[in-house]
Design goal:
762 residues; alpha/beta; Rossmann fold; N-(1-d-carboxylethyl)-l-norvaline Dehydrogenase, domain 2; 2-enoyl-CoA Hydratase, Chain A, domain 1; 8-stranded mixed β-sheet; 31 helices; 26 strands; 46% helix; binds nicotinamide-adenine-dinucleotide; 3HC_DH_C; 6-PGluconate_DH-like_C_sf; NAD; Enoyl-CoA_hydra/iso
Length: 762
């Protein structure tokens, strides 16, 4: 796919275009012609994507690879596209008319797809040639396309299997999507089941006499679903969208998707949720208020304070679910009926909408953010409990349930529609650490970290602490791992893990604070030095080390990443040296590394001002700048040109492993560099900058103090410029860190961060 066309520059089309260029694919984006500016609508779409929060683009500069135009004057621009995705208004006629025009100009191999959320493919294809039909399928993205992992592909009976395979591969590898094949049935998989469940929750709320607050407290993380639960999710989606989708589903299926009258009244009154400022919730003076459907007024949100609920929250999902359905009184009754009714519907509809039940689980996990899909949940509750529950509600036993023997999943197989158990689909190129562990391939282990064997001579170091924070346990296993790999002749090391959120949120602050408060300064100095030694041994080990960061990669987590030989990062990378937020500077080699890296980058350019390198490092650290994507991390200088980006998290570890194997055959550790620091010259400039920020009231006294310590390290100390080794700067880093840690304000910052998770500006 060298170039992709997107027609329709609305919410979805502009989001899809932004995702495509983020993945490195040039795009032609067309919309209808505007009145004054012929390209106005497409331009507006592009502008909207540029302003989107959270960001639609992984790097806004890539917007220039989106060529805009209109469907009257510029259809020709699609001629050399390999794929054209249609995301125009949800009506059959305009879509059909567009395809007729596309058929006339596209090259005979171009794939065409529709982003429709509900119109059957066979209707869209009316009047199209056989050749067009072979190259056509549904590609159902979810909003926002960058962040929702699910992409439903809907082949028709006429879609060429090779076209489907090409799309699947492209979507998985290049766009990073989780692909689920869906049948051409109303709502496809995720929306059909997800929306059904949402409607049931809203209706059962009335039946069981619950409030909106209660339903949201019960249908979020308790059931392994996002915090936004039922009503907050609806507010975010828009109540008008919910109304439209339910009406369409009711119309297309003949089933009952009716929303209660009070919800329709909200829509009629324009209370559509987040986008209009009020829906099921609203906000007043910073406080969240909840609708009372009885009075149609908003009142302060109520927290559900139920000891039974709190006790459940920390349990693993299967136990949590069972406990939730057994809660006493109306809460348990509501949850049980909701679970049973949606389970029944899921069982009944699965063969009609999906090719297997695994896809159903994936669709809800990837499209609706569920921790586990409905079939995994049914297994957790137990099939006998389902049978009894259905009988109590007067529901018949679904065919699929009758065929199940004990559970839907067992021993690496799943129940197929014919009643047989089939092996779960495996993707050999995906590394699962869970599987590696279960196969006993653990080389070293302590309570905070482990070294695993990935095969082919590649080992993987995984952190296992909360948010993968780095403390003594992690560092000691890291050191042992390096020795182990060298002694046993392994090819190299990957550092990575499978946490959903954090590669590593940084150093273990609680430990640092308690040692500081106890005045253990010798201990602390040794601990910081141990961290520095660890990052430096990553760099100088005699085998390649590849870090595989993703999500939160902060402070110490960023320093580990900066010291790997290469990085293979997930596209969603939030990386930064954020130590100033807790009153410190990076002292695991982070400050040193940026100074050396940026200075050496300038070295080939004789006319370059070396202060630029110092300034760049100072800016990143002093402002605690964090990337919002891997592409941005590369621009900021956290990643280098040789570092790779995996769009799909599933492939991150195997991509990193491959990188180790690429580097291994003729690997030599780098020779230790030296640079010339600028001494007083840089210090003077930076001190002046800090002083002017302070004078302008933009930073606090303590910010200024931290800024001056950082400046001292980056200048290589006072005096004339000098030739320094890495350890010269590491020593300065460590001293500055310990000095700051000794101040009351830094300790307050750390304590505040530990308590609230947010930085304190004191
Ligand atoms: P939208 O209203 O935001 O955007 C549609 C765009 O298409 C508009 O810019 C409009 O000017 C343009 N357009 C209309 N007719 C056109 C034509 N004949 N030629 C060229 N451009 C035309 O809609 P959206 O939410 O982006 O939805 C687009 C498609 O994606 C629909 O089929 C919808 O069902 C589907 N979809 C939407 C969502 C969602 O959450 N919004 C999710 C999945 C799928």
């Amino acid at each position: 796919m060298r170039k992709v066309g997107v027609v329709g520059a609305g919410t979805m089309g502009s989001g899809i275009a932004a995702l495509l260029v983020s993945a490195g694919v040039p795009v032609v984006l067309l919309d209808i012609p505007g009145q004054e500016d012929r390209n106005g609508p497409a331009k507006k779409g592009l502008e909207r994507a540029l302003k989107a929060r959270p960001a639609a683009f992984m790097d806004k500069d890539l917007a220039r690879y989106i060529e805009i135009g209109n469907t009257e004057d510029d259809l020709e621009k699609l001629r050399d596209c390999d794929w054209v995705v249609e995301a125009i208004v949800e009506k059959p006629e305009p879509k059909q008319a567009l395809y007729a025009r596309l058929e006339a100009i596209l090259k005979p191999t171009a794939i065409v797809s529709s982003n429709t959320s509900g119109i059957p493919m066979r209707i869209l294809l009316e009047g199209r040639s056989e050749s067009f039909r072979r190259r056509f399928l549904g590609t159902h993205f979810f909003n926002p396309p960058r962040y929702l992992h699910l992409l439903e592909l809907i082949p028709t009976p006429e879609t060429d299997p090779q076209v489907l395979e090409r799309m699947r591969r492209f979507a998985e590898r290049v766009l990073g999507k989780g692909v689920v094949l869906a049948k051409d049935a109303p709502g496809f998989v995720a929306n059909r089941l997800g929306v059904y469940g949402m409607v049931q929750a809203i209706r059962l709320m009335e039946k069981h006499g619950l409030t909106i607050d209660e339903v949201d407290a019960l249908t979020g993380p308790l059931l392994g679903r996002p915090n936004s639960a039922t009503f907050r999710t609806a507010d975010l989606t828009g109540l008008d969208v919910l109304k439209l989708v339910t009406e369409e589903l009711a119309h297309a299926t003949g089933e009952d998707f009716a929303l209660p009258d009070w919800v329709l009244r909200l829509v009629a009154e324009g209370r559509l949720g987040e986008k209009t400022g009020a829906g099921f919730y609203t906000r007043k003076d910073g406080e969240v208020l909840t609708l009372d459907p009885a009075t149609f007024t908003y009142r302060p949100r109520q927290k559900l304070d139920l000891p039974e609920l709190k006790a459940l929250m920390d349990k693993p999902l299967p136990e949590r679910l069972k406990g939730a359905l057994a809660l006493p009184g109306k809460y348990g009754a509501f949850l049980k009926e909701l679970f049973l009714r949606t389970a029944h519907y899921t069982l009944e509809k699965t063969p009609e909408i999906a090719y297997d039940l695994v896809s159903v689980d994936q669709a809800l996990e990837w499209g609706f953010g569920w921790e586990a899909g409905p079939y995994k949940n049914m297994d957790a509750v137990g099939l006998e409990a389902l049978r009894t529950g259905f009988a109590e509600l007067g529901l018949s036993e679904p065919d699929l349930l009758s065929k199940a023997q004990g559970s839907f999943y067992k021993d690496g197989t799943y129940l197929a529609f014919d009643g047989s158990y089939q092996p779960l689909p495996t993707r050999p190129e995906v590394i699962s650490l869970k599987r590696v562990r279960s196969e006993g391939k653990v080389l070293l282990e302590n309570k905070d970290a482990a070294l695993l064997d990935l095969g082919d001579g590649v080992a993987l170091l995984e952190f296992r602490t909360k948010m993968n924070a780095i403390g003594e346990g992690v560092l000691s296993l890291l050191q042992k791992s390096l020795d182990f790999i060298e002694k046993n002749g392994y090819a190299g090391l990957v550092i990575g893990n499978e946490d959903p959120r954090a590669f590593s949120a940084g150093a273990n602050l609680a430990l640092i604070l308690s040692q500081a408060q106890e005045g253990d300064w010798d201990e602390l100095a040794l601990a910081v030095r141990a961290f520095q030694k660890a990052t430096m041994s990553l760099r100088y080990s005699p085998f390649p080390v590849v870090a595989a960061p993703f999500g939160l990669t902060l402070g110490g987590g960023a320093e580990i990443t900066l010291h790997a030989d290469r990085v293979q990062a997930h596209a969603e990378l939030y990386m930064g040296l954020v130590e100033v937020g807790v009153g410190l500077i990076p002292a695991g080699g982070g400050t040193k590394e940026l100074l050396f890296r940026f200075t050496r980058e300038l070295a080939p350019y004789e006319e370059a001002d070396p202060f630029e390198a110092v300034k760049r490092a100072f800016g990143l650290i002093a402002m605690a700048q964090t990337s919002t994507s891997a592409l941005e991390a590369r621009k900021m200088g956290f990643l280098r040109d040789g570092d790779g980006i995996s769009m799909n998290r599933d492939f991150l570890l195997s991509d990193a492993k491959r990188k180790v194997l690429e580097l291994a055959p003729d690997y030599r550790p780098p020779l230790p560099p030296s640079i010339r620091t600028l001494g007083d010259e840089a210090l003077g400039n930076l001190r002046y900058a800090v002083w002017s920020f302070r004078e302008a009231g933009q930073i606090s006294d303590h910010d200024a103090r931290i800024g001056l310590e950082l400046a001292y390290v980056l200048a290589g100390g006072e005096g004339p410029g000098r030739e320094v080794s890495e350890w010269d700067i590491l020593d300065l880093e460590r001293e500055a860190f310990l000095k700051l840690l000794g101040t009351r304000k830094t300790q307050e910052r750390i304590a505040h961060m530990l308590k609230t998770g947010k930085p304190l500006r004191n």
